[in-house]
Amino acid sequence: MKFEPVTIKQMARDLNLGISTVSRALHDSHEISEETKKRVVAYAKKLNYIPNPIALSLREKRNKSIGIVISQFNNPFCSQVVHGMESSFYSQGYQVSIVQTDESAEKEMKAIQYLSFRVDGLLVSISSETKNIDHLKDLYEKGMPIVFYDRICADLQTHMTISDNYRGAYEATRHLLDQGCRRVAFVGGAVTQSIVQERKAGYLQALEDGGINVDPKWIHYLPKGGVHYVETEVAMDRLMRLPKNKRPDGLLTAWDKVTADAYRYLRRHDISMPGELALIGFSNFPLTDFVSPSLSVVQQQSEKLGEVAAGQLLSLLQSKRKPAKFHTEVLMPEIIIRESSSKLSSGEKEPLKVKNKD
Amino acid sequence: MKFEPVTIKQMARDLNLGISTVSRALHDSHEISEETKKRVVAYAKKLNYIPNPIALSLREKRNKSIGIVISQFNNPFCSQVVHGMESSFYSQGYQVSIVQTDESAEKEMKAIQYLSFRVDGLLVSISSETKNIDHLKDLYEKGMPIVFYDRICADLQTHMTISDNYRGAYEATRHLLDQGCRRVAFVGGAVTQSIVQERKAGYLQALEDGGINVDPKWIHYLPKGGVHYVETEVAMDRLMRLPKNKRPDGLLTAWDKVTADAYRYLRRHDISMPGELALIGFSNFPLTDFVSPSLSVVQQQSEKLGEVAAGQLLSLLQSKRKPAKFHTEVLMPEIIIRESSSKLSSGEKEPLKVKNKD
DNA sequence: TGGTTTTCCGGTAACGGTTGCGTAAATAAA
DNA sequence: TTTATTTACGCAACCGTTACCGGAAAACCA
User: Fold this and answer.
1) Inter-chain CB proximity B5 and A142 less than 8 Å
2) Which CATH architecture has domain B8-51?
3) Strand C–CB B27 distance below 7 A
4) Subunit contact B143:A1, Cβ cutoff 8 A
5) Which end of chain B is more exposed for a tag (fewer CB within 10 A), N or C?
6) Nucleotide nearest to A24 (CA to C1')
7) Distance separating alpha carbons of residues B184 and B95, to the nearest angstrom
8) C-beta of residue B20 within 8 angstroms of C-beta of residue B9
9) Mean pLDDT of chain B, nearest integer
10) For A113-155, how does the pLDDT look when each residue is reduced to its tens digit (9 = 90+)?
């Protein structure tokens, strides 16, 4: 099966008219008689004619659409971000087309190449596997408007929108220390990701400010970024099998999926939270407030992040040339303290801050 | 800013060669001398030349990509389905581009129009607002390969892949009756959706088979399909404010988001599950096994559903003409009984069936 | 009647790429 | 030397659309 659309040429033949006549009739040109216009418009309507946007793209070098490159939207944070982006573009008449990279550098390259000729601008969150962004750089130098969101790439100077990962991690770690934790572990995603690095930096600083000597055994990265449960499982096994005096009593997880999987691990192994291990993690998952024990999270302003990034891209699309200055917008995540990390004040079960979604 | 890619024409001028010579050199034609080939290839590499796929599309009338139309992937079920689809296409060299409709008929029409010239085939799950699918029919009659998944549309005869919504709902309702419920309510999504209708039919049949007279007040649809919490809240309010002898003691929710929101409602209002109300709902949300009480669900084979639908589309893409017979693949969902619906055997807390994700 | 303007429409080029065909020069064969 | 063949390249058409240009016929003016 193959799609065979109606063309202007076809209609011209059927109506015994010139191609340009039909085109102009459809554009309501004053150069065409009312009668001919009516004939053409009626026929086009009957055949459900739609101008071929591919042909228009080729001519006008404009696609009226933008592309979003996402790692995996099997992740509430990502889908929330995209939701924030879409509304802005829709109101401006842009179509939005989304492509997943599945954390694979190869897929990412193909996806970007695919989109590059088909969209007018790109919103990119780099995959965790990506090391080389020469293809993006090249695209950018040839004039493609590109905005990074969430996971940035310092090699390319353009607008970016990110969360304050450093502070989010700092405050979360600080909170664990306040609860009396002295051996706080860190399980991140892929070591290559900017967000993981920033979060680790915040974590380390908080420990240093708290006068804690970090044991390298507390820090774990996940080779594939934590997409699969088994990755987190391995890291958790390593942590929980440390000798008792080295075993962590607090844990900061630095990625949504890892947070959920760490929680799953602890429940499965009957390790009590926060008793044996106090857990707080980056997460925009729904239902974290109703799991038992309820889960403390660092929750990003996902929709807002999407909106801001979309605004940046729109400004690039409208600007005549590459702007001289680039902005990095930073959004503060929300720290939501719940049971899983509340060692003190166990009498006061009320969470510190709860933000209702919807 | 505007993307200005390198063209073959540009390179031909720079190298003092004909356009066709450059083209053939890049295709390693035997008609071009080795020396010229080397010059051209080297120059193309230096400039990072990529053939314009738009131009190729226009010529070859083939896009080597397929489109997925999704309602909202802010929904684990949807993202899982898409994940299942992608892998099949990727291995066949197709790019996948995803567009959201946000349950809006208008956006859906625009999305489909946008994709129609840019992809070779379409995987569609109809939005809950859609009543008229003439544009889809027209497209289909012009030869566009289209496969429906999850939410079908009987007006258009083509391949489809769906869950056995009827049986899923039937078994779930049956389970509630087995637990001693006698007043089982139903909260669905939009009345227009095929899946909601099928699920309601299963629910009604189970009640009939159980000898229960249905009170129409037990049945609620949600105008916008339940995207926002408030919709479910209104329905739940109505249910729970019924006089005590009419108030439901069991509830089947027929859509992922509605299930989560109903659960949220019950927890917020301190209505005990399953004591006051036994809850089971369609849901592919993660973490339902760790909420307290743990949530009984009808869980669809989402990834599988995606794979099967992808296979159907691939077969359409390869077939010469419109096939004479169309297949509807039906996948049985999994009923997972947990605490929220287990009125009996409260001593035996072990869930009946638990399927670990990942 | 002859010239000018207006009306209405068609041909053609261009967007970027591939491909069939034509062709000049170089080489080989006679 | 003449002819045939090969080599190596350019021209032009095509995909669907729009824009510029040009032109026939009708209408207008003198």
Assistant:
1) yes
2) Orthogonal Bundle (1.10)
3) yes
4) yes
5) C
6) D18
7) 46
8) no
9) 93
10) 999 999 999 999 999 888 899 999 999 999 999 999 999 998 9
